[in-house]
Structures are given as structure tokens and as C-alpha cells.
Amino acid sequence: MSRIALTAMVALLSCHSAAAQTKKQSPKSPAAKSALDKPVLEAYLRHQFMIPAAMKVMIEDPKPSEVAGLVSVDVLVTDGAAMRQNVQFFVSKDGSQIIQGKVFDVRQAPFAAELKLLKTEGAPALGSPAAPVTVMVFSDFQCGFCKEAAKMLRANVEKSYGAQVRVVFKDFPLEQIHNWAKSAAMIGRCVQRLNAGAFWEYHDWIFEHQAQITKENLTPKALEFANSKNLDALQLTQCIEGRLTEKIVDTSMEEARALQITSTPT
Asked: pTM of whole model > 0.70?
């Protein structure tokens, strides 16, 4: 091989080596962000909705949705205590786009999804189970507006509508602002355990005495009520101290949150 040809070959190999080295060292393009990546979605939602750092954002795994081409992702925003908000997002399968909204199926009756979440079994109720209309009230015994709504319902529903309307009571104590509301709800369910009909007497009594009740005197006053109605005070005390109805109240509260109820009365 001639010296000129050898020199040309060496130069060519050097060029290829330099090009390969340059290609290897060139910076890579950043990976495309995907809403199917939980940290990416959390960061985006915090920025978009200005969610404070103190709030927790919990993102569920994607699951199939009723909308073709989209997956469903449930997001829970909470302060770790009383405040909880569930939000459903729909995410494109490539993770590039998200939609916040509610899907309506025109083949189903309106509110069908909400009706599935409403549970009446075991809840205190007034009126015939066969009534064509059911009013379900999520209420808080320490809430002033609930007191006024309760007066209106008790004074007018049965009188005006008779067997046509049934009223079902659901507990939704707002613990973050009412310090004895959940305890009052648990006592109410203890009264119901002793005597189903007595619950409504307790309901009226506690709203009537709302202004005089405190966190400290709630139980003694409830026992006074029990004695005035010939309820077994010992059994009531055991139920209260054993927190035997807390799970019932918690379940009612979870139902309210699933329905995205945030205030009382609803």
C-alpha cells in the first residue's frame, strides 16, 4: 500500500472515531413527562391547583375507565386529619394529557352513580320504607344550620307529605371545626342501639340544647337525657366508653366524602 493511501485511511478512521465520540458525548433529550408517572402528576397538580406543601397528595394506580382511550386515576388530597377531597382524573394512554371531569352515560338515569353510594341500611329513618321519595340528610349535631334544617324537617315533612316522604339521617360531623360533633354522633347511635325510636328524641333534644353542650359536659348531659327517657344508663355508658358505634359513624362519614360532600346540612 502506498504511503498516500495509508495516510488517507488513517485520516478517515480518525474522522469516524471523532464523530462517534462526539455523538456519544452529546447530551440526551429529556424524557417526555407522563401523567402516568406519579411524581410527575403530583408535581403538576400541586402547581396547577396551588396545593400547599402541608397537604398530602395520594395518587392511586391507573385503572380502566368507561371512556375509550383513557385510563382513570383517583387522587386524594388530605391534611392527614379531617380534610379529605377525592378527585377523579382521566389520563390519555400515552400519559401526555389529563382531564378533570365527570362522565355521564346517557343510557343511565341521572344521578345513578350517586344513588349507588347512598346506603340507607341501619340508618335512623322516619316514614314508610315504601315512600316514593327519600330525603337523606347528612348532618352534624354541633352545626347551627343543621339545627334549623332539623326543625324544619321535623315540623313539616310528616305533616305535609305523610307516607309520601321518608327521611333518613346520616352522620357527617365536621371534626375540624366542631370539637364534640363526632362524640355526639356516636352517642346518638348508642341510643339507637338501645331503642331505635329514641334516636329521634335524642336528635331533637341535642339540637335543642346545642348551645349548652360542650365537649366536657356532653356525656353527663346525654346520661341525663337517657334517664329522662327510661333508657338503660349503664348500657349507654358502656357503649359510649367502649366507642362501640365509632365504626358506624366513620362509615357514614366515608359515604359523605365519596359523594364529595363538604358541608352540612346536605
From this structure: no
